[in-house]
Target: ABC transporter permease
Amino acid sequence: MTAAVAPASLLRTAARTGRTRVGLVLVALVVLTALLGPLVAPHDPTDFVGVPFGRDSLFGADNLGRDVLSRFLHGGQLLLVLSIAATVVGVGVGTALGMVAGYRGGWRDELIMRIGDVVLAFPQVVLALLFVSIAGPKVWLLVTVVGLSHAPRVARIMRDATLMVVERDFVKAAEVTGTRRLRIMTGEILPNVTGPLMVELGLRLTYSIGLIAALSFLGLGLQPPTADWGLMINENRIALTVQPWAVVLPVVAIAVLTIGTNLVTDGLARASAGLGRGVER
Model:
């Protein structure tokens, strides 16, 4: 059997590059802020502490007079949880479909890819807006729609990765010995497409963060009075010149998180290419 690229090995190789280290630091900074922020927030995110857009506290008050810092420190958890959940759904479904299409081929391949083509014809944000506007801004629907909008893109990548593995000797040997196809896909093919899978995981997480924040900004994501970074931008944009912190803090956090995940993903892609050729880069 050809040695598979283990996720731990891929991460270790990627972590040797400067860009990946910087990305990990940026991601860790935002994640820790989101996780530990509620523990150190000076107020409850729904408490009124002053006049709207007032400056009596460190970062002032928002459009309703709530403490900006407290809402910021409480606002990252849900964004991260929903983004991770949507990424898991999208990558999970896309990987399964891509592997079936690449390994089984025939009509299954055609059906999966053509349905994917139809979905890919519409921008992700348009699909999300369509379904969320029809059914309402429900959390489960937000995760499902964002996740499934990733699936066709992931399926294409994983199909190509599977096609590069299915003709190898260890797959043929497993087929000759009568191993079940599901077992071949999970035990033989999946470990050998780890590199592209890890890269897609990082990319889709980046897109999930941006899309969910955008939907909240448009009023179709998380709803008031929930503390959410995308919602904070929407609620306070009208007074950007008067009280900028209510917009600047969540914008900077989302930007740092996005840049960090992009750097990590780029490092994983480079490491995957190097490991796939048997050399370290």
About this structure: Residues 276-281 have pLDDT under 50 and may be disordered. Residues 245-276 form the longest helix (32 residues). Residues 57-276 form a domain with the MetI-like fold fold (CATH 1.10.3720.10).
